[in-house]
Every structure is written in structure tokens, then in C-alpha cells.
Amino acid sequence: MELVAHESVAGVYPASGDYLHALEVREPRRLLFVAGTMGLDPVGKPGADLGEQLELVWGNVRAILGSAGMTVDNIVRVTSYLRDREYAAANAEARKAALGGRVVPTTALVVETLESDWLVEIEVLAAD
What DSSP assignment string belongs to 53-90? Predict the structure, then answer.
């Protein structure tokens, strides 16, 4: 599999340093679509605050990827659903830390979550 970053696209505003406009995945063997994953512990209890939920959600994503023999290095797209726009900076920092500084196409949306104590939900696309 080959990854080709499309950071600079003629006629399109520049991407900031923490995401790409597009990432081309050439000849992947497998694609893994991970459903929106919350910051819940193994019994389904949400973390007490945003920081704890971000730790839990990325731990859950790593476990799901591991079940398919993948790691965060296989992530080629991230979508975040945030309960409050004030969570954007912490979410971006957690994503950058989880990906080891590697940038991928990403989108963050502010939404009303299904449960009021769910503060963040993240879905990813992984490939190898």
C-alpha cells in the first residue's frame, strides 16, 4: 500500500498543520471502517470529563484496530463528533498525540450526542 498526501491543492485554501486535505491510498489490501466510538470504559460507563473520555476513546480505537491486526499507523481518516465546540482544541491535541503527530484528513463536527454525558465520539477509516 502506498499513501500519497495531497496537502497543497491549487485553488484551495491551505490545510493547517494538523490535517491534510486528502490522502490517497494506493492498492490497499484491506479497509477497516470503525463505527463512531465513545469514551466509555469496558462496562459502558463514560469518562468523568473530556480528558478522560478522550483517553478512553483512543484506547477503544486502538483495541478495535488491534482486533483486525492494525494500529493507529493504519488510520487514513478521522471524524470527530463533539458535544461542544469548546472541545475542539483538546480533541485535536488528543488526535495528534494518538497518531504520533502523523496528519490525515480529519473533520470535527459539533453535534447533540445520544446521551448527555457522551462528550466525544470518533470514527476512523484504516487501511493496509
Answer: HHHHHHHHHHHHHHHTT--GGGEEEEEEEESSGGGHHH
Q: How far is CA 45 from CA 41, 48, 63, in A?
A: 5, 9, 17
Q: Residue 51 carries which DSSP code?
A: H
What string of pLDDT tens digits covers the 128 residues of the chain? 999 999 888 899 999 889 999 999 999 999 999 999 999 999 999 999 999 999 999 999 999 999 999 999 999 999 999 999 999 999 999 999 999 999 999 999 999 988 999 999 999 999 99
Three-state secondary-structure class, residue 94: helix
Q: Which cell numbers in the block locate residue 8?
A: 497543497
Q: Is the distance from CB of 92 to CB of 49 less than 8 angstroms?
A: no
Does a structural domain hold residue 67?
A: yes
> What is the C-alpha to C-alpha distance for residues 45 and 79, in angstroms, rounded to an integer?
22
Total domain count for the chain?
1
| CATH at residue 39 | 3.30.1330.40
